[in-house]
Design a protein that fits this description.
Elements lengths: L1 H8 L14 H11 L4 E5 L10 H9 L5 E5 L10 H9 L8 H8 E3 L5 E3 L3 H8 L17 E6 L4 H13 L1 E4 L2 E4 L3 H13 L1 E3 L5 E3 L3 H12 L4 E5 L3 H11 L5 E4 L5 H13 L5 E4 L13 E6 L6 H9 L11 E6 L2 H11 L4 H10 L1
Parallel strand pairs: 1-2, 5-14, 10-12, 10-13, 11-12, 13-14
Antiparallel strand pairs: 3-4, 6-7, 8-9
Length: about 350
């Protein structure tokens, strides 16, 4: 909460304060008032690529004269050379005093009414404005243990409405369809479905629910990673929605029970041996023993499965003999129920306890 953040910021016996990018605006005035902060580190500085956002403006307000400012990123230009402009203006604005429009004209070539491609030499232009800089390849991190990354998001207004209704009444109405939970186990599944962006009604039909906050976290994780990525979702209905959104920026293939064995093998071969697809959106039950997908370095759980073996087998697919970089698994959650499921999965506990605790609540 904002109150808790401000209380923590009043401490004097700490060396570092850590806040997520969207939390800067809440505490920026108290941060500036301290007067003893002489270093700001913007991790994943590419999230500040748009200098017109409230996020960027809040970050810029923190920077005072004679303050050290570092930007960290494995993907400084995740979408286009112009992504470098906002980061540069945040940290080293003197590197390119001209406008964003001038930088876009210098680095991008318009080939249609709304389509631009990078100009020849755009890489050198980006490198010049992002100086001074130091680069470390991910291949120097191969001896590091795989990490679990916990990323939280908010429920959308629509999700919160249905989620609260399920908790209180064990039923809700989605797009005119009745969704009912007849026992604690079913309620657990319905709550997870709602948090992920869709629910199955009593007829087995799937209804989508707005999950924009969770999707933004997925996109941020993808932009932060240099290698290929696997996104897992335990509900088939959600896979299509994820793939539809991600295809706006990347090449994506879906793997679930409806994909034939022959088609599935072709997708896996292309993923391993060709540039595309860049992302696989998969149901974890399809990630069988012995399958090698080590061209990816990041697993993203759009939401948790409730099966220990599925979880363990799915995250192991990127741990192959050809893996050359550090591996990570990101677990996205918006609710205490999801976070408890992830905890049980990581500790190899029994999901039955989650169900029983839910029944008691």
């Amino acid at each position: 909460s904002s109150i808790k953040r401000k209380v923590l910021l009043d401490q004097d016996d700490v060396d570092f304060f850590i806040v997520n990018p969207d939390g800067i605006d809440i505490i920026k005035d108290k941060l500036k008032a301290r007067g003893d902060i002489d270093l700001i580190v913007f991790d994943e500085v590419a999230v500040f690529r748009n200098a017109h956002t409230a996020r960027w403006k809040s970050a810029k307000e923190l920077i005072a004269p004679n303050m050290w400012v570092w930007g960290l990123s494995g993907t400084p230009v995740p979408n286009a050379p112009t992504d470098a402009y906002g980061s540069m203006k945040l940290i080293k604005p003197e590197n390119y005093p001209a406008s964003f429009t001038r930088f876009k004209e210098a680095t991008m070539l318009q080939i249609g009414p709304f389509k631009f491609i990078p100009r020849k030499g755009a890489e050198e232009a980006v490198a010049r404005i992002l100086q001074p800089s130091i680069q470390y390849g991910r291949n120097v991190c191969t001896d590091m243990e795989p990490c679990f990354i916990e990323r939280t998001c908010e429920l959308s207004k629509e999700q919160l409405q249905h989620y609260s209704k399920l908790v209180s009444d064990a039923k809700t109405l989605v797009r005119g369809s009745q969704v009912t939970a007849v026992n604690a186990g079913v309620l657990l599944s319905k709550l997870c479905q709602c948090a992920l962006g869709g629910m199955y009604d009593s007829n087995g039909d799937f209804a989508m629910v707005d999950c924009a906050p969770r999707m933004r976290v997925v996109e941020e994780l993808i932009e932060e990673n240099e290698e290929k990525i696997i996104v897992f979702a335990p509900f088939t209905g959600v896979l299509n929605a994820i793939a539809k959104e991600l295809r706006k920026h990347w090449t994506v293939e879906i793997v679930d029970g409806s994909v034939s064995a022959g088609r599935r093998n072709k997708i896996f071969q292309d993923f391993q041996n060709t540039p595309n697809p860049h992302i696989l959106v998969c149901h974890p039950a399809c990630m069988c023993h012995g399958l090698c997908l080590d061209k990816a370095s990041l697993n993203i759980w759009f939401g948790p499965t409730v099966k220990n073996e599925e979880f363990e087998q799915a995250i192991a697919r990127i741990d192959g003999a050809g893996q050359k970089v550090k591996m990570d698994t990101a677990c996205i959650s918006a609710t205490p129920v999801e976070r408890e499921i992830y905890r049980v999965l990581r500790e190899k506990g029994k999901m039955q306890q989650v169900v029983l605790d839910l029944a008691k609540g």
